[in-house]
Structures are given as C-alpha cells and as structure tokens.
Design brief:
It is a single chain. The protein has about 240 residues and is an alpha+beta fold. The chain has eight helices and 13 strands. Strands 1, 2, 3, 4, 5, 6, 7, 8, 9, 10, 11, 12 and 13 form a 13-stranded mixed sheet that branches. Helix 1 runs antiparallel to helix 6 (about 135-145). The protein is elongated, with a radius of gyration of 20 Å. The relative contact order is 0.21. Residues about 35-50 have low confidence and may be disordered.
C-alpha cells in the first residue's frame, strides 16, 4: 500500500478507538526552561493548577472521560491523576505544590496534603483544566478536524523495523512544519504504535500508543486517601 493509505488506515483506527494508553515524552528545545520557579504571591492557583503543558505523561484514557496515570511538568513537578466520569482525584508531589501554590505557602500545603489526593469534580475550576487531558473524544476530534492533505503528500515509507517487539513500517513526512515519523503496525490492525516529532528548535516529542480498546482501571482512591479540594481553597484563603 502507499504511505498515504497506510497513514489513513492508522488514523481511522485511532479515531475508532474506545480507549488507548498514551506514553509521551518531550525533550530538547526550551522545555526545560519552563516552570520550576515559585509563583508570585498574587498568582491565581485556582486557574493555574495543571494548566502547563506536560513534558511527559503515562495516561490510560477512554471516550467516556475516564483516565488514570501520571504527568510531569518542566521543572520536575509531577502528579498522579484519576478520573471517573465527573469525579477527579489529583495527587501532586512536593515540587508541584511549591511551584503552583502562591505566596511561598507550597511547602506547608505539601506537608498538609502529603500522600493524599485532592478530590473534587470537573465543575471545580481548580480541577477542570487538569481533567481535560482525560478527554479522548476531544483528542479524536482534533485528529479528525486536522487538515493533513498537504502533509500527507510528503509521506515516505522507510524500511520495516520493530518497536517494543511490534513489527512496524515507518512513515516520515512533515506535520505543521515539523518532521514527523509514525510507526504503524504491519500485522493485525494497522495501529499507530509510536510517533516521533522534531522541530527546528531541537524539541523532540515521542508518543507511544498501546492497549487500544483496553479498559481504564476502575479503582479510585479511598476516602482515607483523599481530601476535599475545599480544604485546599481554605488553606489558600488563610495564606
């Protein structure tokens, strides 16, 4: 098959997926320069929590808005995330608290909520932004709406190889001005297994796609492991 036809089939499989496991890592460029400094006392933590683009993530998500995984931001801050329907659990590490909570009060918040999840709903502005990463439907809409006609013309097939034990065919071309290589499974369904995107600034984004159709783990943190997000808001008001 032509590179374009292989690409179209892989795209359709991703659009049809009920769930998928994403593994993303971004390196180079200016990614290491973002974040990492304490925020000003006047920063709005309710809108900033989780708003920065992650530099890496491990996330299982589905079309019903459920997800489970871990995200890491530039500067080393990380958090565990669980979402079932409109309910959200988020467990940040100490670095996350220090860089996200205003007024230098992050250390106290890290100690107060140490080892526990903040719990709330997608209706809470403090959790809304971070919960949006769990929306597989939105990711699929972006893929569906993308105009890749011109980019597809540049696709070239490489030599068959393997990625994590899976036989694949690499397709290399341009995507929005960036060089992109997609690795498509050659046995069974033509799933996209991995993509590697590079820009002129030296930034490299590697994304793995596995476990198509596998359910998101249904276990959620227990009440003993969780603290209502209202307690954090109360802490911030006192600070």
């Amino acid at each position: 098959m032509s590179a374009r036809k292989i690409s179209d089939q892989a795209k359709q499989e991703l659009l049809d997926a009920r769930s998928v496991h994403l593994s993303m890592k971004r390196t180079g460029g200016d990614t290491t320069a973002k974040g990492g400094d304490d925020r000003d006392a006047g920063a709005d933590a309710e809108t900033d929590v989780g708003a920065d683009d992650p530099t890496s993530l491990e996330l299982i998500l589905d079309r019903d808005g459920n997800c489970a995984g871990t995200m890491k931001e530039a500067g080393g801050a990380s958090l565990d995330l669980v979402k079932r329907g409109d309910k959200v659990w988020m467990k940040p590490d100490e670095t996350f608290w220090r860089t996200q909570v205003p007024g230098g009060d992050g250390k106290a918040a890290a100690e107060l909520f140490k080892g526990r999840y903040l719990h709330g709903t997608t209706g809470d502005p403090m959790l809304k932004d971070i919960a949006e990463v769990c929306d597989l439907k939105e990711l699929q809409r972006e893929i569906q709406d993308s105009d890749d006609t011109d980019d597809a013309k540049s696709l070239r097939k490489g030599e068959p190889t393997t990625v994590d034990g899976v036989d694949v065919i690499p397709l290399t071309g341009m995507d929005d001005g960036k060089k992109n290589t997609m690795y498509i499974a050659t046995e069974g369904k033509p799933y996209l297994v991995k993509s590697v995107e590079r820009d002129d600034g030296g930034e490299r984004t590697t994304t793995g796609f596995t476990d198509y159709g596998e359910p998101v783990p249904s276990k959620t943190p227990s009440p003993k492991e969780s603290v209502d997000v209202a307690k954090l808001k109360e802490r911030l008001r006192k600070a």
